[in-house]
Amino acid sequence: MNATAEATGTGRGIELGLRQNAAQFTLLVVVNALVGGMLGQERTVLPLLGKQEFGLTAYTAGLSFILAFGIAKAATNYFAGAWMDRFGRKPVLVAGWLIAVPVPFMLIWAPSWTWIIVANVLLGVSQGLTWSTTVVMKIDLVGPARRGLAMGFNEAAGYGAVAVTALATGYLAETYGLRPEPFFLGIAFAALGLGLSTLVVRETREHARLEAAGHVARADGKHDHLHGELSNGQVFVQTSFKEPALSSASQAGLVNNLNDGLAWGLFPILFAAAGLSVGKIGILAALYPAVWGVGQLFTGAMSDRWGRKWLIASGMWLQALALGLIALADSFPVWAVAAVLLGAGTAMVYPTLLASIGDVAHPAWRARSVGVYRLWRDGGFAVGALLAGIVADLLGVHAAVWAVAVLTAISGLVVALRMYETHHRPVMAEQEVASDE
């Protein structure tokens, strides 16, 4: 048994570290890829389905499925953190997959747009439970030294699967039509995800308790007042508004998903209006999350070596630049370059924001802080759907893209001015890196 585990009495055979928990960590990477695939089945097809099969002409109405998804996922993220602390990680993960099972069938058989909205409420709840849980479980397993790398793997798997599925569904839609074939992938993902989560995934809550027992304070005294147990209300206030790093990460997460909601809901329509085929739209819809996904394999580890703050600020500014290029362009090659830049900027931000939450939040209430952060981050889908839809209806799609680009640049400035560097390598973390290597 690990000496620290023995001293704390947290359980026989429980150790922190990527190498020590490689099998479960890898399994959770696979599970999160399946979670991403459930989201990816909609990225290319659903905006076109609303326009072509259900006759939606107003942008706000067409984005209503993203609004429903964003509100459901954001709210579920908040409760997921508290439920993970109360009931354990695995029950929450399994519940999320059970809720996902009917979604692809509803998308296939939907006789009206209302069915699509209800399906996206279920998808949002499912994603809030499953994705939040895989994030927290990986943080539990690896300990403090490799959080950035862990989040890089987690988000790379999820958004890599979004990209591959978006590309595959674009091909299927062009070959066979918008329904039902593209959504057969979702049926397979749900079955595999539920089976693996029920039969093979193991509980990780004791790993968090082990880390809490050996938690080392920062030498500079930052966030000493956050040690120990906090109430749910205190966690919400600290993560949302009061603690500079946590609140800076929360607003950046919201704006990041605001522009992702724009990409999901309006980009396919923008590209179709320019005369691109469904296949080419599928390539563009896949390119952005593909670069985002693969890039996180590197950016998460980079943040462990170089720090979080400036990677986040620079990533937000790169996203703003990419959005401006999309608004200016009118051809496939330029849009492809912009999609790569947008994916690269998002890759710099996404795992690093999660790692920064893990840096600051005490293990005793980390799951709840992650839940609050993800409440704000995925609330960006809802804010983005409303903002982009209203601006697009009033001023056009290009104006909506410009508006989101400006907000993204401002968000990066907030991080630069308010956030402090959160990454801290105490003695315990240095020893863990050495043992992993």
Automatic annotation (TrEMBL):
Keywords: Cell membrane, Membrane, Transmembrane, Transmembrane helix, Transport. Residues 21-423 form the Major facilitator superfamily (MFS) profile domain. SUPFAM superfamilies: MFS general substrate transporter (SSF103473). It holds the Pfam family MFS_1. GO terms for molecular function: transmembrane transporter activity. Its main location: membrane. The keyword Mitochondrion does not apply. The keyword Transmembrane helix applies. GO terms for cellular component: plasma membrane. The chain crosses the membrane at residues 21-39, 59-80, 92-110, 116-137, 149-171, 183-201, 310-329, 335-354, 401-420. It is a multi-pass membrane protein. Gene3D superfamilies: MFS general substrate transporter like domains (1.20.1250.20). This is MFS transporter. It comes from Nocardioides piscis. The lineage of its organism: Bacteria, Bacillati, Actinomycetota, Actinomycetes, Propionibacteriales.
